[in-house]
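Appendix B, example 12.
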Amino acid sequence: MANNTSVSGRAHIVLPLDTQKIAADVLVRVGGELDLPTVAALDAGLRAAQNLTVPGGRLLVDLSDATFLGVTSMNALEAAYRRCAAIGVALSLRGVCASIARHLAAAGLGHLAPDPLRAG
């Protein structure tokens, strides 16, 4: 997985993020803790991936390697979902563990991860 680096204050935060274009779809693999220190890198990665999408395509965000999903990152995912919907691109999450799926559902974002993994 490639590293995307963001600067938050004086500390450099490394967020594992890898983007692949597959036909009309774009797959983004994100790992690690997705919280306040990494939200800028997540948002930048999602925006860059969105720029590769085409109307009618999908932006698939794979969270298989994510260990935590904080509120700020949920907000970034919801914002990306809305931006994609506005241009005719479907955004959905893949590889979501049950605990992250519960947090998404509690935040009213269960629609982003329709098929969570059973583990977690």
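The radius of gyration is 13 Å. The beta strands are 3-8, 11-22, 25-34, 58-69, 90-94.
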